[in-house]
Amino acid sequence: MFIIFFMDKEKEIKTQDFVADFYENIRHSRSYARKFHDYWFSEMVKRVVPRGLALDAGCGTGEMMEFLKNRGYKNFVGYDISFNMLSHAKKRAESLVCADAENLPFADTSFDIIYGRSILHHLQDVPKALREASRVLKPGGDVVFVETNKTFINDLPRRLMKHGDHFSEDHKNFKDSDLLSMMKKEFEIKNVNYFGYIGYTLLGFPDMLDIYRFIPLKKIFTPLLINIDKVLSRTPIVKRLSFCIIIEAKKR
Ligand SMILES: C[S@@+](CC[C@H](N)C(=O)[O-])C[C@H]1O[C@@H](n2cnc3c(N)ncnc32)[C@H](O)[C@@H]1O
């Protein structure tokens, strides 16, 4: 593993180093949260099935790479700016790099696919990170990003959350159109899907909100909530009220 130090990102690194243990010990260890995250990863991977060499951008504790590995796909590299995130990810993946999304230490056209779950809204300079993602991707390569989708429903909760110690001041809540117009400068957008409703809030983040722990009959309610989210993501108009969007794009 390479270690590089990033002097201008101390606050984000400090926050993510702190949050990493919550991801490891709570978010990804509660069985209902794991089920939700597996559904979430499958929604990303089904958009672009892995091939060649894949990059997990802002890989955190490596759950996405474990998901890929469990499905027989082993050719991936993960990078993250938080050393504590990577020290957990080490249990799940071998090829890890401590790197800044805005200055990637990879050669041009190294990767066939980039998956990035919830990294862009943590960055200081998103256009620069998108240029870097495009640079390291092969022509015709695919990206799948999951990002925030600012709506009147999630704007206030996200603003309130930002005051806690799980977020740094760099944390943003993108409006879908703003993010897409940044992405269009580097990529051809293939598809935008809406993701994350009731199941997302109740199941996905027990490290921040764990009222679901008190709900009985989880064997029934967990798949039910995931299915409700699936239905909502396909329901015209209502689907736009999601917490996230899944963006599929291609390097021209
Ligand atoms: C919300 S977490 C998502 C982690 C992981 N992708 C997941 O879905 O569990 C955002 C991740 O982006 C990383 N990150 C934030 N700023 C970064 C930067 N400039 N370069 C690389 N990674 C960064 C954080 O350390 C953190 O692991």
Question: What's this entry about, in short?
Answer:
Helices cover 38% and strands 18% of the residues. With 252 residues, it is α/β, with parallel strands linked by helices.
Give the helix/strand layout:
Layout: H1 10-27, H2 31-45, E1 54-57, H3 63-70, E2 76-80, H4 83-89, E3 96-98, E4 111-117, H5 126-136, E5 137-148, H6 155-161, H7 176-184, E6 188-195, H8 198-203, H9 218-232, E7 244-250
Parallel strand pairs: 1-2, 1-4, 2-3, 4-5
Antiparallel strand pairs: 5-7, 6-7
Helix pairs in contact: 1-4, 2-9
The structure holds S-adenosylmethionine.
Record keyword descriptors for this entry.
252 residues; alpha/beta; Rossmann fold; 7-stranded mixed β-sheet; 18% strand; globular; binds S-adenosylmethionine
**What is the helix tally?**
9
Strands, count: 7
CATH 2nd-level architecture: 3-Layer(aba) Sandwich
CATH class division: Alpha Beta
Strand content: 15-25%
Shape: globular
This entry's quaternary arrangement is single chain
Low-confidence runs of at least 5 consecutive residues: none
Gyration radius over CA? 17 Å
Mean pLDDT: 94
The separation of the N and C termini measures 31 Å
Instruction: Identify the CATH homologous superfamily.
Output: Vaccinia Virus protein VP39
**Largest sheet descriptor:** 7 strands, mixed
> How are the strands of the biggest sheet laid out side by side?
3-2-1-4-5-7-6
Name the helix and strand elements from N-terminus to C-terminus, one letter apiece: HHEHEHEEHEHHEHHE
Helical content stands at 25-40%
- Whole-number tally of structural domains: 1
CATH topological fold name: Rossmann fold
Overall SS class:
alpha/beta
Query: What small molecules does the structure contain?
Result: S-adenosylmethionine
